Amino acid sequence: MNYTFQVYIADGQEHFLHGPSGHVQHTQYPLSQTVLEWVELNVKQIRDITERLQTDLHNLLTERTERLEEPIVEGLALLNSYHPYFAYVRLEWAERLKQARQQSCKDVEKLLPAEELEQIPAILEMTQQQLRTLWHEVLDVDVSGGSIQDKLRKLYTESSSNSLCFAFQPLQLRYALIEEGIFTEVLEVRNIFNISDFFVRECLRRELRFRICKNCGRYFALSRNKNAEYCERPFAIPAKTCKEIGALNQWERKKSDSPALKAYTREYKRRFAWIRYGRTTEEAFYHWAELAKLNRDACLRGEITLEAFLAWLKLDT
Ligand SMILES: [Zn+2]
């Protein structure tokens, strides 16, 4: 094999060593991040790409010209852009294409099995459903039912359908010294679905807890703050994380609940009506409103007391 695809966990991070010989890259993510993204992946988009890859593969096998490898290489790169796990498929198939070229005609169909690509979307879809169930039934901090082990036992013994339970598979692990200077279990990936399997076990073993973010509706891992309601993923534009949006919403809510703001709004409406009755001019009103806003904000920031602000509002200026 002329490439590396290894996965391990160190310092609470997922580590990926991936690339052709001589160009191995090291990428890392917080533990559980890639699994959650795997579950959220749009299967339809993946199916579109794998279907096109099968057609391209068919063309290559029929015509056997090197030029027809190009769309396959591009398709694999596109697949990889959707999720880091697809780097495995990309490397493995690049290797197979090279071998197929070297042995020209012999056994090429066996070397490039289109069924393997065809199966990916269906297995992905099933894995997603099973992992969603596992997350909800076992890892969701807001779903009661005892410890992780209790919930796990319950799911796997009492579940009405086996197809709902995530099916753990045998993995090829090696206990080895890693770059970080420690010995740990390193996964030798033999199948793309090995990777989520490897990380899910670790989430369970470490008893990680997850919650659905109140802003984006996606699961996130709880770290130090067990009461966190928002994740820290970037959300929308301008780039703000859900946590920042959450804090902003809370501040807005608190602000609109505040007696200072309520009193300001009441007084604003009352004085605005005065314009119609000729008791004040538009100009005088807007001048007052400007000052009132400054005082209101000073009060919200705690620079003047509520009593002082309410007293000021009553002044007939
Ligand atoms: Zn979020």
What brief labels describe this structure?
317 residues, alpha+beta, 5-stranded antiparallel beta sheet, two-stranded antiparallel sheet, 12 helices, elongated
Question: How much of the residues is beta strand, in percent?
Answer: 5-15%
SSE-based structural type: alpha+beta
Spell the H/E element sequence: EEEHHHHHHHEEHEEEEHHHH
Largest sheet: 5 strands, antiparallel
Note the total helix count. 12
Distance between the termini: 85 Å
**Which segments are poorly predicted (pLDDT under 50) over 5 or more consecutive residues?**
none
Tally of discrete structural domains: 3
> What characteristic shape results from the CA principal axes?
elongated
Task: Compute the CA-based radius of gyration.
Answer: 29 Å
Helix content: 55-70%
**Quick check: average pLDDT?**
90
The overall strand count is 9
Arrangement of strands in the largest sheet:
3-2-1-5-4
What binds here, in terms of ligands, is: zinc ion
